[in-house]
Specification:
Number of strands: 4
Largest sheet: 2 strands, parallel
Shape: globular
Number of helices: 7
Strand order of the largest sheet: 1-4
Oligomer: single chain
Protein backbone atom coordinates (compact mmCIF):
# COMPACT_ATOMS: atom_id res chain seq x y z
CA UNK A 1 0.00 0.00 0.00
CA UNK A 2 2.74 2.48 0.91
CA UNK A 3 4.65 1.68 -2.30
CA UNK A 4 1.57 2.10 -4.48
CA UNK A 5 0.44 5.34 -2.83
CA UNK A 6 3.96 6.75 -3.04
CA UNK A 7 4.14 5.83 -6.72
CA UNK A 8 0.78 7.50 -7.31
CA UNK A 9 2.03 10.61 -5.51
CA UNK A 10 5.13 10.65 -7.74
CA UNK A 11 3.39 10.13 -11.05
CA UNK A 12 -0.21 11.25 -10.57
CA UNK A 13 0.05 13.96 -7.91
CA UNK A 14 -3.02 12.63 -6.09
CA UNK A 15 -3.63 9.77 -3.69
CA UNK A 16 -6.84 8.44 -2.18
CA UNK A 17 -7.00 7.21 1.40
CA UNK A 18 -9.93 4.92 2.10
CA UNK A 19 -11.25 4.74 5.67
CA UNK A 20 -8.37 6.71 7.16
CA UNK A 21 -8.94 5.60 10.76
CA UNK A 22 -8.15 1.96 10.00
CA UNK A 23 -4.91 0.59 11.45
CA UNK A 24 -2.29 -1.35 9.51
CA UNK A 25 1.16 -2.66 10.49
CA UNK A 26 4.00 -1.76 8.13
CA UNK A 27 7.58 -2.98 7.91
CA UNK A 28 10.47 -2.24 5.59
CA UNK A 29 11.75 -5.28 3.69
CA UNK A 30 15.23 -4.80 5.21
CA UNK A 31 13.72 -4.97 8.70
CA UNK A 32 11.74 -8.03 7.69
CA UNK A 33 14.97 -9.77 6.69
CA UNK A 34 16.62 -8.73 9.97
CA UNK A 35 13.70 -10.14 11.95
CA UNK A 36 13.89 -13.47 10.13
CA UNK A 37 17.62 -13.69 10.79
CA UNK A 38 17.06 -12.93 14.49
CA UNK A 39 14.46 -15.69 14.74
CA UNK A 40 16.78 -18.15 13.00
CA UNK A 41 19.62 -17.22 15.36
CA UNK A 42 17.48 -17.20 18.54
CA UNK A 43 17.74 -20.05 21.06
CA UNK A 44 15.44 -22.82 19.84
CA UNK A 45 13.60 -22.94 23.19
CA UNK A 46 12.42 -19.35 22.64
CA UNK A 47 11.05 -19.69 19.12
CA UNK A 48 10.32 -23.36 18.41
CA UNK A 49 6.65 -23.90 17.61
CA UNK A 50 5.84 -20.24 18.17
CA UNK A 51 3.89 -17.87 15.95
CA UNK A 52 5.62 -14.49 15.89
CA UNK A 53 4.17 -11.34 14.36
CA UNK A 54 7.03 -9.64 12.53
CA UNK A 55 7.04 -5.89 12.89
CA UNK A 56 7.38 -3.09 15.39
CA UNK A 57 4.64 -1.36 17.39
CA UNK A 58 6.05 2.00 16.23
CA UNK A 59 5.04 1.01 12.70
CA UNK A 60 1.36 0.49 13.45
CA UNK A 61 -0.21 3.43 11.58
CA UNK A 62 -3.65 4.56 10.59
CA UNK A 63 -4.20 4.93 6.87
CA UNK A 64 -4.59 8.67 7.48
CA UNK A 65 -1.08 8.62 9.04
CA UNK A 66 0.22 7.00 5.85
CA UNK A 67 -1.38 9.76 3.78
CA UNK A 68 0.21 12.41 6.00
CA UNK A 69 3.67 10.82 5.73
CA UNK A 70 3.40 10.67 1.95
CA UNK A 71 2.14 14.25 1.79
CA UNK A 72 5.09 15.38 3.93
CA UNK A 73 7.39 13.88 1.27
CA UNK A 74 5.33 15.39 -1.59
CA UNK A 75 3.87 18.67 -0.28
CA UNK A 76 2.23 19.52 -3.61
CA UNK A 77 0.10 16.39 -3.93
CA UNK A 78 -3.62 16.24 -3.24
CA UNK A 79 -4.76 13.69 -0.63
CA UNK A 80 -8.38 12.65 -1.07
CA UNK A 81 -10.32 10.92 1.69
CA UNK A 82 -12.94 8.30 0.80
CA UNK A 83 -15.01 5.69 2.55
CA UNK A 84 -16.08 2.18 1.61
CA UNK A 85 -17.48 -0.90 3.35
CA UNK A 86 -14.04 -2.33 4.28
CA UNK A 87 -13.61 -1.42 7.94
CA UNK A 88 -10.93 -3.97 8.91
CA UNK A 89 -8.33 -2.94 11.48
CA UNK A 90 -4.97 -4.59 12.06
CA UNK A 91 -3.21 -2.97 14.98
CA UNK A 92 -0.76 -5.72 15.82
CA UNK A 93 1.28 -6.56 18.89
CA UNK A 94 4.89 -7.52 18.30
CA UNK A 95 5.77 -7.99 21.98
CA UNK A 96 6.56 -11.70 21.66
CA UNK A 97 9.08 -11.03 18.88
CA UNK A 98 10.74 -8.25 20.87
CA UNK A 99 10.97 -10.33 24.06
CA UNK A 100 12.26 -13.47 22.36
CA UNK A 101 14.67 -11.94 19.83
CA UNK A 102 15.25 -8.31 20.80
CA UNK A 103 14.13 -7.21 17.33
CA UNK A 104 13.40 -3.50 16.80
CA UNK A 105 12.79 -2.01 13.36
CA UNK A 106 15.42 0.41 12.08
CA UNK A 107 13.37 1.89 9.24
CA UNK A 108 10.39 4.21 9.58
CA UNK A 109 7.52 4.54 7.16
CA UNK A 110 9.06 7.72 5.77
CA UNK A 111 12.28 5.83 4.90
CA UNK A 112 10.37 3.60 2.50
CA UNK A 113 8.52 6.56 1.00
CA UNK A 114 11.83 8.34 0.42
CA UNK A 115 13.33 5.25 -1.24
CA UNK A 116 10.43 4.98 -3.69
CA UNK A 117 10.63 8.71 -4.46
CA UNK A 118 14.37 8.40 -5.12
CA UNK A 119 13.82 5.39 -7.40
CA UNK A 120 11.46 7.50 -9.52
CA UNK A 121 13.83 10.47 -9.51
CA UNK A 122 16.74 8.27 -10.64
CA UNK A 123 14.67 6.63 -13.38
CA UNK A 124 14.78 3.20 -11.75
CA UNK A 125 10.97 3.15 -11.88
CA UNK A 126 9.39 4.74 -14.91
CA UNK A 127 5.81 3.47 -14.81
CA UNK A 128 4.36 2.03 -11.61
CA UNK A 129 1.46 0.52 -13.58
CA UNK A 130 3.82 -1.86 -15.41
CA UNK A 131 2.79 -5.50 -14.89
CA UNK A 132 6.09 -6.38 -13.18
CA UNK A 133 5.00 -4.33 -10.15
CA UNK A 134 1.61 -6.05 -9.76
CA UNK A 135 1.66 -9.73 -8.80
CA UNK A 136 -2.03 -10.35 -9.39
CA UNK A 137 -2.18 -8.61 -12.77
CA UNK A 138 1.08 -10.29 -13.85
CA UNK A 139 -0.28 -13.74 -13.00
CA UNK A 140 -3.55 -13.02 -14.80
CA UNK A 141 -1.64 -11.97 -17.91
CA UNK A 142 1.02 -14.70 -17.81
CA UNK A 143 -0.95 -17.50 -16.21
CA UNK A 144 -0.20 -18.73 -12.73
CA UNK A 145 2.22 -21.66 -12.30
CA UNK A 146 -0.62 -23.83 -11.01
CA UNK A 147 -2.50 -23.47 -14.31
CA UNK A 148 0.50 -24.02 -16.59
CA UNK A 149 1.41 -27.44 -17.92
CA UNK A 150 5.04 -26.51 -18.41
CA UNK A 151 7.25 -24.01 -16.54
CA UNK A 152 8.46 -21.15 -18.69
CA UNK A 153 11.43 -18.95 -17.91
CA UNK A 154 10.49 -15.29 -17.66
Amino acid sequence: MVNLLTAKACQDGVITIFNGQQWRPFIHVRDLVEAVVRVLEAPIRLVSGEVLNVGDARLNHTLADVGAVIQSAFPNIRVEQAHNADLRNYRVSFDKLVHRTGFRARYALRDGVDEIREAFEQGMIVDYTDLRYHNQRFLLAAGSPSTRTKWTRW
